[in-house]
């Protein structure tokens, strides 16, 4: 069956360091992959979309890579700040013919001052 | 400002009762979605709609129903057949297909 896997363990890093979060998927090669930020009690907020023909995408301090051979996306936050503390979700079309995103369970990031 | 409005923010349901969660968007988006989130879990798809008067089941549609009579509105009814409805419900919309989703602020439903 098709799965999306994100590290369920929280990631704790010091302010100013680079945070790297991982999203792995199985069986299917999606046309694109998306990353969202979710704060407690709030709806997710869209951050970045990367397409299968793009190796890397950047937006301010955020960088996403997409390796279709490894079936993996990495999400980087450089010069991290305490305000970056949140849960980060990856999402993709799992290719079942269903025209809706499937979300991973998310990784919680905690940036210590 | 454009966005998605979910109401109410908190909802309490008695056993055997049907309740309806509201989702309204003024973004002129064609596609709308309902997801359920349980504590510490990811989002699970309940129903989605690509156009008015058409909708499809997601992974966990049992015990839920929807309608899409207007482009702006996609209400979700949690029926008494849903045995474990306590969760955080999120509505989203998007256009065009493949673009990022815009989410509402969610409705937290609790069975009392």
Describe what you observe in this structure.
The complex is a heterodimer of chains A (113) and B (112). With 113 residues, chain A is mainly beta. Chain A has strands spanning 4-6, 11-14, 19-25, 32-38, 45-51, 56-59, 62-67, 72-77, 86-92, 102-103, 107-112. Helix content of chain A is 0%, strand content 52%. In chain A, strands 2, 4, 5, 9, 10 and 11 form a 6-stranded mixed sheet that branches. Chain A has a 5-stranded antiparallel sheet with strand order 1-3-8-7-6, with no helix packed on it. The radius of gyration of chain A is 14 Å and the shape is globular. Chain B has strands spanning 4-7, 10-13, 19-25, 31-37, 43-51, 54-57, 64-66, 76-78, 87-94, 102-103, 107-111. In chain B, strands 2, 4, 5, 6, 9, 10 and 11 form a 7-stranded mixed sheet that branches. In chain B, strands 1-3-8-7 form a 4-stranded antiparallel sheet, with no helix packed on it.
**Shape call of chain B:** globular
How many H/I helical runs of chain A? 0
Low-confidence stretches of chain A: none
- Compute the average pLDDT of chain B: 94
Helical content of chain B (DSSP H or I, runs of 4+): under 10%
First-last Cα distance of chain B: 36 Å
Q: Structural class of chain B, please?
A: mainly beta
Sum up the structure in keywords:
heterodimer; A: 113 residues; mainly beta; 6-stranded mixed β-sheet; 5-stranded antiparallel β-sheet; globular; B: 112 residues; 7-stranded mixed β-sheet; 4-stranded antiparallel β-sheet; 11 strands
């Amino acid at each position: 069956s098709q799965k999306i896997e994100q590290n369920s363990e929280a990631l704790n890093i010091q302010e100013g360091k680079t945070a790297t979060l991982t999203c792995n998927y199985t069986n299917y090669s999606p046309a694109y992959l998306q990353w969202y930020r979710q704060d407690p009690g709030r709806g997710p907020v869209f951050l970045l979309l990367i397409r299968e023909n793009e190796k890397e995408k950047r937006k301010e301090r955020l960088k996403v890579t997409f390796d279709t051979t490894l079936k993996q996306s990495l999400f980087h936050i450089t010069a991290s700040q305490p305000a970056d503390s949140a849960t980060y979700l990856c999402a993709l079309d799992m290719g079942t013919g269903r025209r809706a995103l499937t979300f991973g369970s998310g990784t919680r990031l905690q940036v210590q001052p | 400002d454009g966005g998605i409005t979910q109401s109410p923010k908190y909802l309490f349901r008695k056993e055997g009762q049907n309740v309806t969660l509201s989702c309204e968007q003024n973004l002129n988006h064609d596609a709308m979605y309902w997801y359920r989130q349980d504590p510490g879990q990811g989002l699970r798809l309940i129903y989605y709609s690509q156009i008015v008067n058409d909708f499809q089941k997601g992974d966990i549609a049992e015990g839920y129903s929807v309608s899409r009579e207007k482009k702006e509105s996609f209400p979700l009814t949690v029926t008494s057949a849903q045995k474990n409805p306590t969760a955080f419900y999120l509505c989203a919309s998007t256009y065009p297909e493949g673009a990022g989703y815009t989410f509402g602020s969610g409705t937290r439903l609790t069975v009392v």
